[in-house]
What we know:
- The chain is an alpha/beta fold.
- It is 42% helix and 23% strand.
Amino acid sequence: MTRLVLQGPNLTSEAASEIAAKLHGSVKLDTNYAVIELSQITASDMQALRETYEFDINVVPAGFEPQAAKLLVTDMDSTLINIECVDEIADFINVKPQVAEITEAAMRGEIDFETSLRQRVALLKGLEVSALERVYLERLQLNPGAEVMLKRLQQQGIKTALVSGGFTFFTERLKQRLGLDFTMANVLGEHKGRLTGEVVGDICGAQAKADFLLAHCEMLGISPAQVVAMGDGANDLLMMNEAGLSVAYHAKPTVQEQASIALNYCGLEGVLGLLQLQYN
């Protein structure tokens, strides 16, 4: 049995019923999403549906059981939050265009992430550490649906983790603010109130993110098949490939192509529809 999940601001019960009829499936309508059960669907049918309707249409992988999910692991920059923190920090030292160009290339997978991070952080050398607080207070916002998603997952007893190629300055504040269970990110070097232009310790890149997911599965006594992993950039792919459900959130094309799920119309609350949970 194939499960098709429909969701997004433009979804209507009429459209859901129309798709179910086209595919000879049965539809279950919820306030915020619809689930269609059918025998099978071809790639060409999926492409045609996505070209016709302006809401998210995804097939839940056959081996993933929504009710068995125990852990969400999400990226931070441009996934849980609305900005790339390093780009915004760079704005305070007038190098944002240079840093943003490197960031974009890294997220597309054109530059090795670890190399790109060192290049970007080097450009921040000499900036007052107080600029980080300004970025957090003045520019960082949660992406739509973040708090609804996290609150509902936590009510279900699903653990929540934030793993980022960004910086601990931001992940630790978000951990406290949102009640997250686990975090990992990079440490910015500082001396006498200014950034040194270096990253302290090992870099949290693509492999480190995947290792983080697997280590927490072992710690919690769960299988990677019970994990939802979400991101938007190339450095999220190794982590996402380990999970039972991989979600590309408003992501780069290469990430959408490789993820099991692509959310382009929904906010982060779309994760709840994939797990067939009420939004509350």
